Amino acid sequence: MRSRSEVLVSSLAEYGAYHTHPGNKVVHVLFVPLLLWSAFAALSVFGAATAFGLWSLYTLLFIYLEPVAGVVSAVLYYALLLHAQTFAATSAAPLATAAGVHVLSWVLQVGLGHHVFEKRKPALLDSLLPSLALAPFFVCLEVRPLPATALCL
Question: What span, in angstroms and rounded, lies between the C-alpha atoms of 105 and 98?
Fold first, then answer.
């Protein structure tokens, strides 16, 4: 049986193979968090607990995969959750705005990131759930100054 570190390195390497162009990486670093923000905002319309539930699932997964990076990611995405919940509670049209941000984020990631820069289909077309689960974690690992496997040793 493979260790968590081996699973993480293997999963990130597979996901990373779809994200090699610097332009695609920039698009994902900007728009994966906006996808998550828009999901948090939309879910917050139906109650703060629903958005918190999504954040909790991601947090448990990230900490399971790599405790140190998982906690850092959880804190960053918690700030995003709080902003989305505040936005949902104070905006005149939170659901419409969240939907617009969500659609725009997908269009830019697939159209600009994968079609224009990467010239390759997105990872989620080959593995939907793993891609949706790993994308926010991949972004956090991508922007930190350490190599992707440094925390997995």
Answer: 10
- pLDDT for 146: 46
What pLDDT sits at residue 9? Answer: 80
Two tokens, residue 115: 């079609």
- Name the residue among 79, 67, 69, 65 with its Cα closest to residue 33: 79
What are the tens digits of pLDDT across the range 81-118?
999 999 999 999 999 999 999 999 999 999 999 999 99
* Domain assignments of the chain as residue spans, ordered by start: 4-152
Name all contacts of 102-111 with Cβ < 8 Å and 24+ positions apart.
Answer: 102/35, 102/38, 102/39, 102/42, 104/31, 104/34, 105/31, 105/32, 105/34, 105/35, 105/38, 106/35, 108/27, 108/31, 109/27, 109/28, 109/31, 109/32, 109/35
